[in-house]
Amino acid sequence: MSSTSDKPYLTSSDLDMLQGVLDAAGYKTRIPTRDEETCNAAAMLLIKLFQEGVNSPAMLLRALEYHFGKPKTQPKPVTPVCNRYAIQGLPRERRTKPPASSAGR
């Protein structure tokens, strides 16, 4: 199976697939049409790779991650709604005995 493309142009279904890759990668900009002068580097990279024969959405998504990277910071860990001790109870060494006046009643 050859990975080269004989088409020098992109069809509307090709553009829809490339736009889907951009959307999956988190890009909000649309692929520019002929009359628009805007240049989106990610879209231009996808078009170039597609015309070179890379037509798998997964491979195109990997190429975007390779060229532009992923966020480097890890997501903030989820903090629990309840305190740990509210769920598990206090450890034995942190427990206090109840006052003597309330125990005698």
Description:
By secondary structure, this protein is mainly α. It is built from five helices and no strands. It has helices at 12-25, 41-51, 57-68, 84-88, 100-103. Helix 2 (41-51) crosses helix 3 (57-68). The mean pLDDT is 75.
How are the secondary structure elements laid out?
Elements lengths: L11 H14 L15 H11 L5 H12 L15 H5 L11 H4 L2
State the main characteristics.
single chain; 5 helices; 44% helix
In short, what is this structure?
This protein has 105 residues and is an all-alpha fold. It has helices spanning 12-25, 41-51, 57-68, 84-88, 100-103. Helix 2 (41-51) crosses helix 3 (57-68).
Biggest sheet architecture: none
Measured by DSSP, the beta-strand proportion falls in: under 5%
- Helix % is 40-55%
Secondary-structure element pattern, one letter each: HHHHH
* Poorly predicted regions: none
Care to count the β-strands?
0
